[in-house]
Here is the input.
Amino acid sequence: MERYWQIEKTNLKHNVPLHVLVCALVLGISPFLVGTANLEAQDTAKVLEMYTAFIGIIMLTPIFLPEQPREIRELTGSKYMKSSTVYLIRLVGNSLILAVFLALYIAVLRHNHCEFPIIRYFLGTYVEMLFMGGLGVFCYGLCDNLIIGYMIPIFYYIIAMGSGSKFLKLFYPFSMAAGSYTEKYVLVIGGVLLTAWGIALRCRRK
Amino acid sequence: MFGQLFIKECRQTAKSLIFWLIVLGLVLDFSTQLGGMEIMSAPVEGQEEYGYHASTDEDVIIESALGALAEEYCRKNYTTYPIGFYKSVTLSKEEDRRIGEIIREASGLDGREEVEQTVDDWYAEQEQGETPMTSGGCRLEPAEGLTYERFIELMEEADDILGGGSKYGDGYRESNAQVPMTYEEALEEYQLLIENDRLSGGYARLFSDYMVIFLGILPVFLAATRGLRDRRAGMQELIYTRKASSLIIVSSRYLAMLAMLVIPVLALSVIPLMQCVRFGNSAGVSVDMLAFVKYTFGWLVPTIMIVLAVGMFLTELTDTAAAVLVQGAWWFISVFSGVNTLGGGMYGWNLVPRHNTELNWRGYHDGFSQLAANRIFYAVLALALVIFTAFIYSQKRKGRFVIRGKILADRKNKLKA
Here is the structure.
């Protein structure tokens, strides 16, 4: 357990700060860009799904970044601890940071008199974050390219914004705003599978 | 030298996975948004309705803005769209009092009760058919002697109090004053499409409107990948030692990426052009064959230029993928702030100028100078960023500016020296 905590501590010290800063900035400027006070449930869902969930891409996608240079990857590959364990620890750590960000944001919305079911919206938004981040992890693992890891989930996001649920059907990420929660179950399964697949692909790459 | 490098870079881009993903993205964008596009036919007399359009009549603008303000004042809650996202604004007592004063001066109604009564009466008359049907809610008569200039001042003040993006700000006031189109007006609008735009002009604008959304973000991925590729492949130092100047290396990369991105856009534009030509042949309309080329270079290329330049500049400066995050944020704000300008004519300084209709030639014509200034500004800014990128590149060749994601790294290098 001590070793796992050491890995996470290193992650928190060297890899996470920039991404945490960007996420904090994105959420911090939100009162200037979107409504965060006196919102009805549907409008709160819009803000959470279309704005807040975006930080899932920022936090989760770069979990392989420290091993991007081949020489570092070879070095870490020679260590006793499996790469997959290191990636999982980072993933869990970053997911917890996302959960904290989301909880704080939801607390602010609630404090600003927004009316919405807290647990339901927390889980719905978190699932969307995990799916978009998982898509990024999968694409990064598949192509060994962080840029593609960012590009595909952003592309998915644009398609969702532009076409609604017409093409994405059960993978439509903004369903809560439209009053449906079914898509969230598909997204959580999809998110877990994509993340696991992405890590597996990355571990197989020498 | 430049020509050889340019061709080499084009080949590199063509082999890049990210380039083909971008092409796929553009194709998907086109097929989902414009795939089922049909060329519009002339309106027929006797249709149930011909849609609505924003009135330019000052009386209508005043009445609709005052009506909307009165309704929101009664609800004690105001809706704004600062960047296109819904924002609900609740005012402090002092601000609420000032809005009440603005309504009193503009409409002569004193106090919330009187305003509420007037709004209720207006809706009751609508239900009984005593007032003509309107679109967009209540209309309120202005106070006697209220000039249009004073009305504008009052509405601007209300918009400031609400934090901008309200129905009372510049542009939104006018677009909010929606009135039903008559057959004659609809026919005139159609004639403008056929005669002034020669059909294809209007559809080229619509094509540009959809494509510019994706082109406001996708090129940054190509630029960032290209910027990081040399270091990733361990070729950076080798290229640094080559004879070619930094400006030639950077500009050849930039122009190659630009050219490679313009090609698929032009290729996609052939599809709607052919639709226009077919329709033009059957309807006897002389279609402008070069319209899509003109709009691609005039409307879309400046956006591609600036997005590529931002990508190259930030990647060269930081040696990280930070450009993706920065451009992502800029794109996000640009797209959402353009939501209220979809009808066209209000281009402002938006990176992603919108005109989501084949019609409204007049709006395009009136806003043309602003659009041209916008496009020239971004093209010039892009060239300036390319020159800065070349400067940073030249400094790196001399061993300076080696940042690699750490802001103080260069200072450490100097200290070591």
Summary: The mean pLDDT of chain A is 90. The two ends of chain A are 27 Å apart (CA to CA). Chain A has one domain: 2-204.
